[in-house]
Amino acid sequence: MGGWVEGDPVGDRRFLDLPGPFEPERGGRLPGVRIAYETWGTLAPGGDNAVLVEHALTGDSHVTGSAGPGHPTPGWWSGLVAPGAALDPARFFVVCANVLGGCQGTTGPSSRAPDGRRWGARFPEVTVGDQVRAEEALADTLGIDRWACVIGGSMGGMRALEWAVALPSRVDTLFFLASAAVSSADQIGTQTTQQAAIRADARWSGGDYPLHAAPEDGLGIARRIAHLTYRSALELDARFGSRVQEDHRFAVASYLEHHAGKLARRFDAGSYVLLTEAMNSWDVGRGRGGVEAALGRITARALVAGVDTDRLYPPEQQQRVADALGVPLRLISSPYGHDGFLLETAAVDGLLRELLA
Ligand SMILES: CC(=O)SCCNC(=O)CCNC(=O)[C@H](O)C(C)(C)COP(=O)(O)OP(=O)(O)OC[C@H]1O[C@@H](n2cnc3c(N)ncnc32)[C@H](O)[C@@H]1OP(=O)(O)O
Ligand SMILES: N[C@@H](CCO)C(=O)O
Predict the structure, then answer these.
(1) How remote is the CA of residue 327 from the centroid of ligand 1, in Å?
(2) Which own/partner contact pairs does 259-263 have at CB distance under 8 Å and 24+ positions apart?
(3) Is the CB of 223 under 6 A from ligand 1?
(4) Are 98 and 211 in the same domain?
(5) Structure confidence at residue 107 (pLDDT)
(6) Interface confidence: ipTM more than 0.90
(7) What is the pTM of this model?
(8) Catalytic residue positions?
(9) What is the pLDDT of residues 29-63, one digit of tens each?
(10) Binding positions for substrate (predicted)?
């Protein structure tokens, strides 16, 4: 590919059109790929201050700032990218792109194909490797030869790790957070169950639904299942216990319903299925002689961290990566479980400062 085209910005978002074809590793073909991205700060003349932030499953390019055009939610790591924070835009050039297959500006199942219809079920399967390949083209366009740091948590951690393994000469430091080198049966089990909830919604129509009649009930149930895995049992019990609200609903059920509705209003079910499938198929060691052999390719200075109460990405998974890289696992103490990687920004900020010092 080559000859990138910059589209008109929308709000804080900018767009880059990679002329096709983009050929995902598992087959199929995308005639062109649009990447939505945001940046903060200025690229230094030597190009040595660029940081790539990788978002998680339902995140987007809006790392910091308020909600606005193209951003259904305020920045999801605002504490990390701010004056005086670890990623101070006065020092770093911070880049975040919506993932390939997503629904916040980057080409995904809800985007229109060249025939004018939405891709829907025709959208090819993508892997984490494909997603990083698209981001490599973005880095090329922005004139970034090497990232001073690539950081990501959860699904974002997968892309961060893939960068460090696939393109070691382009990653100076790696921050791998609350993620895994290969998906476990538990993770695949919960994600395929979430997918089944979406597919069971009559509106799913094999993935070819109109956006005004999207399978919101199925996506909502998927989010309820997922959200339980994102929080710790102890935290949920301390907050809600068996309390019944005035409307006669269990408080925890009402809370999950609230999150289900919020996601269904801001996220595409087709992207949800596609991205969870990319996570299911994630194995950094595939085709590389196994996980440890793959991790042996990393030359970046690495910081590996997890959340002590994370039941979805338990610390054992980060320990495996830390052991292979010969670094200590840094555990963040938090009651929140997996979502601790988003909520414990002060702790993440401290670790990031240490890595970038
Ligand atoms: C990495 C990423 O990219 S994530 C992308 C960004 N994602 C989002 O912003 C939305 C997804 N949300 C999440 O993932 C998580 O909720 C987080 C981590 C962002 C936020 O977690 P927390 O701040 O702990 O929020 P919490 O889970 O307690 O939920 C609070 C909400 O539940 C609502 N709530 C609490 N109790 C109840 C109840 N009994 N019944 C109904 N609603 C309830 C609150 O009113 C609040 O609503 P609001 O968010 O609309 O203001
Ligand atoms: N709350 C996060 C969890 C996934 O890691 C999200 O919605 O993306």
Answers:
(1) 33
(2) 259/223, 259/224, 259/227, 260/219, 260/220, 260/221, 260/223, 260/224, 260/227, 261/220, 263/58, 263/219, 263/220, 263/223
(3) no
(4) no
(5) 97
(6) yes
(7) 0.96
(8) 154, 310, 338
(9) 999 999 999 999 999 999 999 999 999 999 999 99
(10) 223, 339
